[in-house]
Amino acid sequence: MNALDALSADVSNLVESVGPAVLSVRTLQSRRSRLGNGSAVLISSDGLAVTNSHVVRGATGIEAELSDGRTLLADLVGDDPLTDLAVLRLASEDELPAVELGDSNRLRVGSVVVALGSPFGLARTVTLGIVSALGRSLLGAGGRAIEGVIQTDALLNPGNSGGPLIGSQGEVVGINTAIHPGGQGLCFAIPANTARFVAGECLAHGRVRRAFLGLSGEEVLLPTPLARRLGLEPVGSGRGVAIRELTSGSPAELAGLQRGDVVVRFAHQRVETVSDLHRMLVGEVIGRPVTLGVVRGAEWIELDVRPAEFAHSAAG
Fold first, then answer.
1. Which of 24, 39, 53, 84 is catalytic?
2. Looking at domain 104-205, which of 2.40.10.10, 3.30.230.10, 3.40.50.300, 3.40.50.1110 is its CATH number?
């Protein structure tokens, strides 16, 4: 058997193994009674499935077609627009075929991956590619970046959203989410490790709990002499998040933060970018006092803030 025959056999075996757990999702959107479609993947035999938030958000009805042709109603367990992930529960008394969420941290650039889904409603479509890059950021809902995104050239089209990206061992390494509208072969998937976290939070709370301060800001570079004098690490690094707007009555305003302040520490962790700040605003800090290190003018000050629970309408 030559190399191409071996690759073909491996891909076919992988698809035969994983394919039964891939769903074609159809939704009824309340606005203008519009029909939508996407994909999902079963991650437990009792009917738990993961898809994209943008596939099911706002739907008044959701149904999922299995690979054997059965169509089952699905309930929305939880929705997380900030990672573009949602969790569904299929109504079935029978055990359903499911696949495991793998460890996406083990992926390497160049790893072969397979995307499964229903592009344009064409169920059980398979494309093959490689991991083109790791650690990308995509802008999600509320202006928050989705971190650690997988870039792949496994071809995706509308309707692939929510379907699995499969690794060479047959494990789900990502949930397909987006294509670059101006490019070819620029496709993205949310890491399986993120999907596992979101699924757990949705099962426990119906949503992912996050904290917010009530500010909007942008990355700035402080003068090098000032950064060195203040002892910012790494040595000479003067990056921080400059506050441009404060929400009235927000935790940030109540703590005494002002426009023009530059946030450089959060609970003793270095803050250099808006994404750094977002990563630190986890559910565990909601309502708890946190010390912020702030540069105001040419001076260092520390302020205590109590982050509130994030609502999707909040700025950040």
1. 84
2. 2.40.10.10
